[in-house]
Design goal:
The protein is an alpha+beta fold. The chain is about 20% helix and about 50% strand. A five-stranded antiparallel sheet has the order 1-2-3-4-5. A hairpin with a 5-residue loop joins strand 1 and strand 2. The longest helix is centred in the first third of the chain and has 12 residues. About 5% of the residues are buried.
């Protein structure tokens, strides 16, 4: 019985996370959004661009939950 518990605990400790880089584009081919997904959840910093290619918003996620939003807008791109 102990061996099964140890194997189960090791399986949980070494679980593989599926990490994917995501890039969305406007019809013009310019980047609209980019960021990372971990196990299908948005994670880390996501950058949003306007149709002219300027950064418009930065959003930080922690496994799908928004933890910080910075609306950059025009001030950042001048």
């Amino acid at each position: 019985m102990r061996v099964i518990i140890v194997i189960t605990m090791l399986g949980v400790l070494f679980a593989v996370q599926d990490t994917v880089k995501v890039v969305e584009y406007y019809m013009t081919g310019k980047v609209k959004t980019n960021g990372m997904k971990v196990n299908s959840f948005k994670h880390g910093k996501w950058v949003h661009y306007d149709s002219n290619g300027h950064i418009s918003k930065l959003i930080k996620y922690n496994y799908g939950k928004k933890v910080e939003v910075l609306d950059v807008g025009q001030a950042f791109n001048k």
